[in-house]
Amino acid sequence: MQDILNDICKTITAEPNKGKVASYIPELACIDPEQFGISVALPDGQVFNAGSAHQLFSIQSISKVFTLTIALGKLGDAIWSRVGREPSGDPFNSIVQLEHEGGKPRNPFINAGAIAVTDAIMMGHKPRETLGEILQFVRFIADDNSIGIDEKVAQSEKLTGDRNASLAHFMAAFGNLKNPVEQVLGTYFHHCSISMSCEQLAQAGLFLVSDGINESTGFRVVSAQRARRINSLMMMCGHYDGSGEFAYRVGLPGKSGVGGGILAIAPGKASIAVWSPGLDSIGNSKLGTQALELLVQKTGWSIFGH
Amino acid sequence: MQDILNDICKTITAEPNKGKVASYIPELACIDPEQFGISVALPDGQVFNAGSAHQLFSIQSISKVFTLTIALGKLGDAIWSRVGREPSGDPFNSIVQLEHEGGKPRNPFINAGAIAVTDAIMMGHKPRETLGEILQFVRFIADDNSIGIDEKVAQSEKLTGDRNASLAHFMAAFGNLKNPVEQVLGTYFHHCSISMSCEQLAQAGLFLVSDGINESTGFRVVSAQRARRINSLMMMCGHYDGSGEFAYRVGLPGKSGVGGGILAIAPGKASIAVWSPGLDSIGNSKLGTQALELLVQKTGWSIFGH
Amino acid sequence: MQDILNDICKTITAEPNKGKVASYIPELACIDPEQFGISVALPDGQVFNAGSAHQLFSIQSISKVFTLTIALGKLGDAIWSRVGREPSGDPFNSIVQLEHEGGKPRNPFINAGAIAVTDAIMMGHKPRETLGEILQFVRFIADDNSIGIDEKVAQSEKLTGDRNASLAHFMAAFGNLKNPVEQVLGTYFHHCSISMSCEQLAQAGLFLVSDGINESTGFRVVSAQRARRINSLMMMCGHYDGSGEFAYRVGLPGKSGVGGGILAIAPGKASIAVWSPGLDSIGNSKLGTQALELLVQKTGWSIFGH
Amino acid sequence: MQDILNDICKTITAEPNKGKVASYIPELACIDPEQFGISVALPDGQVFNAGSAHQLFSIQSISKVFTLTIALGKLGDAIWSRVGREPSGDPFNSIVQLEHEGGKPRNPFINAGAIAVTDAIMMGHKPRETLGEILQFVRFIADDNSIGIDEKVAQSEKLTGDRNASLAHFMAAFGNLKNPVEQVLGTYFHHCSISMSCEQLAQAGLFLVSDGINESTGFRVVSAQRARRINSLMMMCGHYDGSGEFAYRVGLPGKSGVGGGILAIAPGKASIAVWSPGLDSIGNSKLGTQALELLVQKTGWSIFGH
């Protein structure tokens, strides 16, 4: 495995076209696109790293997997009255579908859906409390208490967050936000600004590898059925309108973030985190996807084969 | 396995709400909604049946899996210049996305995409020749030369096929059909009218279970990579705007048809065909989906767990 | 003329179905739907009234005619880089078109367009200053210094203005708002909350009757060409996705507001204001439209005949 | 008037940028873009011409005014159950709105709407009979029996008419066509291929100038109310998604055709026909619009002033 990762790292760092770093969040715009990291965490607790696997980066939309997991724990299936579970076929920040479908976002991984999920888990609490809860959960599943929020990134998002504010107010107009819009957005911007390394992220994904149990710590995080369902949502909706492409090329459930990270799950086999800040035109990590494609070719981990 | 299928059959036939039989194709509208069949074909050649597993039914859109496979064989990746591979988020017969995206259908499993694929495999040949080729392929992968086309259903579709004619002419206007519209539609209506039993269908899917090889016959149908990619497309797009729901509930790549059939693939494990003519509001078999959900619960075959 | 208005008033007040009072602005929801007023102002200064023509009501979107006139005065044709001049075919608060056309509203009379126009006339000034300017202009054209803003209505709009906030943030995300969103919305909500009577409103419209000159006061407000162009915009876009219906039935340029008022212009003949709080399904005054239809039938004032 | 037209003719023919001749109908693609004609017909029977006012050209969508008039005569208001009367905000050949609104076109002047109107006036008759009727009507209102159909253009449209075939089949799928699609399209293509000169066209429009009566012949064609309503529809929908622009610049009800002609009505004053084959990006005659703008400036005929 270590050899495989080293190979991938060599191939990826040699790629001339690294994609474009997200420019609409100023704090992310100045990240060096040359960086690359990959971590593979196995159920038995082993972790293999290559490249800048310990470098912290902004997990951005990958946090949506964690907030969805929390929401399912708190509300159960009631969350599905607030958000759907179908691919949207639209960009991450599209508002068209919201108007056509009465303010109910298609799925929890597009921005509108994740804002609705954030609202759902607030349950009348203040942003600070909700963020504390989210952070505690992420630290728990990653088994690492050092994980925190990058306040500079959170502020930077806030300043340029008009598109998300538009989505939030739109849902509020349909009664699909219960807490004040400002507070929901503040909470959303902050949990998107959690900083993690590839290694931490790979470990945080382990509960999705083993039917809800993090086998390295022995803790059950969610039921087997719920773990499988979260994986199915990552598969169908984890890469916005590039989800089909990711399924076709990589063949694993995965969730990307505009910070350049991707968390991918090979059920029964491994939790994988990659990071390369340059994005493709849809907003998914260009070389991160390529690294995962190489990894799956070398390991045969696609869930569509055997 | 036989006990599991018998149990499922008992549960499903006892369900009071069977959904609604497709009404827009007259010949299908008169099918008895009480019928149910299920077949599970294992790579080693064993087949388990329950209910009306030998009853022939119209496979309808399930044929799109076979025409896509043929198109990939003939054109390779060039087919992707004609059709995309993303979930559409729209109903099976929607034309909106076609206008917004210049006549290129989102994926090969919505009607527009399947019509484009049908056009692509015609390559200037007459409908009769193309249909011969499709039928030959289906007979080959199912290892059953008795499979044929129900001409009554084909005629019935033709009479009510204005929506598909609209899609075809729209693509033709953008130069995305090379053969005469009438001939492409005739070919399309006919391959949708192939009649198969659950048992035949399950056997036809075996090459997708074992990385491209039908292990019971020993024939390689497609490469391992291609088999995985076809599975990924079935997962992402096989149930129209109900694909997310199917992934969430069943967790297997699958393709439905308005005849009430579903072909589902459990990679490495089994090819499954179910049939129940009543449809849900999206156009997928209501009890067929439920039967697959039960089967996956009992066997643990979800590709999202281990 | 007085007889005509009395007749219309009698017919309208006898109508059993008055439409539905706008419910989404609480302060407007409690207006008595039984009220009706009509005023006809002639270029020579004569005004004919019937019903509650002196009752103040919230002019709401009719204020968009005045802010557009101010914006044209301040920016000239440069305003058209910020907003289009085509009917939208969509409801007044739709956001779909904004996403498809990069944050540029179709015309100045849908909500998004009017918010952009409000932003344009602020030019860095505070809401209070801009509102002062708008109010001064309305008092000037109506020749009535008693006209003011209903602060309760303005607060009421603010509380329920999520849909407008969504539109504003969406445009801000595309750089099509220059002032802080909160301030633009505050200004917008306030100018929509101007209270006027039918008589005041009819007088305010006189400059559009006589090619830019209010002949009763002798003041030129805008050039002849500009007056005609404002009329053309009222004709094409003044009733949202009911503009075609209004043109068909009434045949005059007009602008409606959800307060139940309509300002209609018969070029060379009269400025007409009607008020009936009940709305049709599109959000235009149901009986107000009917009153104008009757007036045009009796006077032959349609601009489509002679 | 003759001097005005000569001036306009001089200005227009000196314009270097003539727009682009419609390319999608081969027979129209080879028209010389340098040609220009203008005719002004007064109610008293006088006609003023300049340029190639006697040159025949393909009236294309201008024929939709005549078929709508016929349909209103045959069906009365019942036609409005088949087609709406709102601007669409979409291009002439868009299908998106049709899907969103159940196969009912927004208005009779976009292609879909005109096809539905053509179907409505067929009433079970054969294309030849219906065309005879349309031609007879056009000859009657223009008082000129020499008017005919250019069969070459009709054939040319048929060959490239996939977009219109798509619209027609789409409506047929919703039950909004009663006659066979092929026959409706054949009739539609043929009435679009009527050839007229500016002079003939201007005379054909006279009934819309004088509240339904052609005062030069003395014949009443439609009621005053109907004439005004047809004018309102031309105003609101006559130039597709450029209708707002035409209202803003010209200020007259008008209907354009991709052959480069425009028929404009100044109620009570004149019927005007212009022809310049080069089109703008929306599909309306570029210099034709400019000529009308000049004419209205010189005559003050805008319906929005006095």
UniProtKB/TrEMBL annotation, chains A, B, C, D:
Keywords: Acetylation, Hydrolase. Its EC number is 3.5.1.2. The keyword GTP-binding does not apply. It comes from the Bacteria. The keyword Transferase does not apply. Pfam families: Glutaminase. One of its GO terms (molecular function) is glutaminase activity. The lineage of its organism: Bacteria, Pseudomonadati, Pseudomonadota, Gammaproteobacteria, Cellvibrionales. PANTHER family: GLUTAMINASE. It is an enzyme of class 3 (hydrolase). It catalyses: L-glutamine + H2O = L-glutamate + NH4(+). Substrate binds at residues 61, 111, 157, 164, 188, 240, 258. Belongs to the glutaminase family. This is Glutaminase. Homotetramer. InterPro entries: Glutaminase (IPR015868).
